[in-house]
Amino acid sequence: MPRMIFVNLPVTDLKRATAFYEAIGAVRNPQFSDDTASCMVFSETIFAMLTTHDKFRQFTPKPIADAKISNQALFCLSADSRDEVDDIVGRAQAAGGVADPSPKDEFSFMYGRSFEDPDGHMWGVNWLDMAAFAAQPERANA
User: Fold this and answer.
1) Which domains does the chain have, with CATH numbers?
2) Model confidence at 142, in pLDDT bands (50, 70, 90)?
3) Tens of pLDDT along 7-39?
4) How far is residue 104 from each of residues 13, 87, 108, 127, measured CA to CA in Å?
5) Is 95 left (phi over 0), alpha (psi -120 to 50) or beta?
6) Are 90 and 23 in contact (CB under 8 A)?
7) What residues have CB less than 8 Å from 136, skipping those under 6 apart?
8) Which of 29, 28, 38 is nearest to 8 (CA)?
9) Three-state DSSP state, 82
10) What distance in Å separates the CA atoms of residue 131 and residue 23, rounded to the nearest whole number?
């Protein structure tokens, strides 16, 4: 079985957050969702668990950071093309997120953009051409 990742994110409005993640392409798994959490599926191995603040507090005694003013983590999703990067960020913006809070990554072998969800959690979306990356002169000397 492949290793899976579950990113747990505290959200202030579960319905709004669920709709946002659905708008960017994640699918809500009702089996692991209720009125305190939505399990958002990006792939067979990548999940975002959106939880109310009360639910999130059940897992940690630490205070919940306000992601709009501080950053503890950056999340990144891969994309199959430059167009898919632009599409995901465009859908995030249309759904109420902030497009490109960080500078774009624009290289011959990589293209990346970012967005913030309505709670301020920051996501990157990157496309990488592995053949072009391997052909970089600095890679040949490594």
Assistant:
1) 1-59 (3.10.180.10), 74-142 (3.10.180.10)
2) very low
3) 999 999 999 999 999 999 999 999 999 999 999
4) 29, 14, 13, 12
5) alpha
6) no
7) 109
8) 38
9) helix
10) 31
Token pair listed for 133? 């990356």
Q: Are strands 98-99 and 110-116 parallel, antiparallel or unpaired?
A: antiparallel
User: How are beta strands 37-41 and 46-52 bridged, if at all?
Assistant: antiparallel
Nearest CA among 14, 10, 16 for reference residue 64:
10
The pLDDT tens digits for 55-105 are: 999 999 999 999 999 988 889 999 999 999 999 999 999 999 999 999 999
Does residue 140 surpass a pLDDT of 60? no
